[in-house]
């Protein structure tokens, strides 16, 4: 029996090479429209996705033979986990491939916030020579609060410590010793809000932390705090953050992710003074795209040909 792997999103060609070398049938024409994906799913055994394709209940229902969904990336919020689990479909992610890329972007955004780099660039390109308007601050000696101390959060902390920042972190699933070993300190969320000059978000979204950055939590933060989000847009109440920036409670924000992507017209943070907006570039490096493609392909090969399942995010639901 030859297993069929459908790749409806654009992934690095190395993924296809790995799948074909394992003797699998591969359909990977590049970015597919939804109707094309639905039609191609009839005999698919595995699906490899990036973020463009939404594996919702209707799409999963169109794939009667589907056994595996592999996400070439960390977040699986574009996959209906309940629908997949009901069908006993394993959903796997690739948590290692884009760690450095996302950490470097978060740190770049923090530096850009501190030194007003995009605004100064726009000013100079508009023919102005205005140095006084872009007085910045140094990172050295400031406190960085890292919300979510997994792979990416720790990678950001490592870079912050090299810049002589103090690092406090919040993560209910990480032992305090993990932070202490690298020179950071694990604290409660309220303590982090009170201490941090910069806050960077690196949590997955769940019912407990959805819109955790909101009117109430923003009021607990230092006046003049700067916020970076290269994780998930749903962690922030975007209207509340915009109001906090307008009031001066928050000095600035850098956001790479949005509750709705692409963000709709009239989004409260797009074009707002003090905000740096980027279009979900966290994993957009050549190295990261190669790494997640290879990892996703290897996961699918192991699952289909050996019955070995790794990085299964819905393992508990599958029993």
In short:
By secondary structure, the chain is of the alpha/beta class. It is built from 13 helices and twelve strands.
The CATH class label of the largest domain is Alpha Beta
Annotation, overall tally of beta strands: 12
Beta strand %: 15-25%
Strands ordered across the widest β-sheet? 8-7-6-9-10-11-12
What is the share of helical residues?
25-40%
The CATH architecture classification of the largest domain is 3-Layer(aba) Sandwich
Shape: globular
The structure class reads alpha/beta
How far apart are the first and last residues' alpha carbons, in Å?
A: 26 Å
**Radius of gyration, Cα only, in angstroms?**
21 Å
Any low-confidence stretches, pLDDT <50, length ≥5?
Answer: none
Query: How many domains make up the coordinates?
Result: 2
CATH topology-level fold name of the largest domain = Rossmann fold
Overall average residue pLDDT: 96
Q: What order do the SSEs take from the amino end to the carboxyl end, as H and E?
A: EHEHEHEHEHHEHEHEHEHEHEEHH
CATH superfamily of the largest domain: NAD(P)-binding Rossmann-like Domain
What is the makeup of the main sheet? 7 strands, parallel
Helices, by number, come to 13
């Amino acid at each position: 029996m030859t297993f069929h792997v459908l790749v409806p999103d654009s992934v690095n060609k190395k993924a296809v090479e790995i799948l074909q070398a394992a003797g699998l049938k591969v359909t990977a024409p590049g970015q597919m429209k939804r109707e094309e994906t639905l039609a191609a799913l009839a005999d698919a055994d595995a699906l490899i996705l990036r973020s463009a394709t939404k594996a919702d209940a209707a799409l999963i229902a169109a794939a009667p033979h589907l056994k595996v969904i592999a996400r070439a990336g960390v977040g699986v919020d574009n996959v209906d986990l309940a629908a997949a689990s009901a069908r006993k479909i394993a959903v796997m992610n690739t948590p290692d491939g884009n760690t450095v890329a996302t950490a470097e972007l978060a740190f770049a955004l923090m530096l850009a916030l501190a030194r007003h780099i995009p605004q100064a660039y726009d000013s100079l390109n508009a023919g102005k020579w205005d140095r006084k308007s872009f007085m910045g601050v140094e990172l050295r000696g400031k406190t960085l609060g890292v919300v979510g101390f997994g792979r990416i959060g720790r990678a950001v902390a490592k870079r912050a410590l090299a810049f002589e920042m103090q690092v406090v972190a919040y993560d209910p699933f990480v032992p305090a010793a993990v932070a202490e070993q690298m020179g950071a300190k694990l604290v409660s969320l309220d303590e982090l809000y009170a201490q941090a000059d910069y806050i960077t978000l690196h949590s997955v979204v769940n019912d407990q932390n959805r819109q955790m950055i909101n009117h109430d939590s923003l009021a607990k933060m230092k006046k003049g705090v700067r916020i970076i989000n290269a994780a998930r847009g749903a962690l922030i109440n975007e209207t509340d953050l915009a109001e906090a920036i307008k009031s001066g409670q928050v000095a600035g924000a850098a956001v790479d992710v949005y509750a709705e992507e692409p963000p709709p017209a009239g989004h409260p943070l797009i074009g707002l003074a003090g905000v740096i907006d980027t279009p979900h570039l966290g994993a957009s490096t050549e190295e990261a795209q190669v790494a997640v493609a290879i990892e996703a392909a290897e996961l699918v090969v192991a699952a289909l040909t050996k019955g070995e399942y790794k990085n299964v995010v819905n393992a508990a639901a599958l029993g």
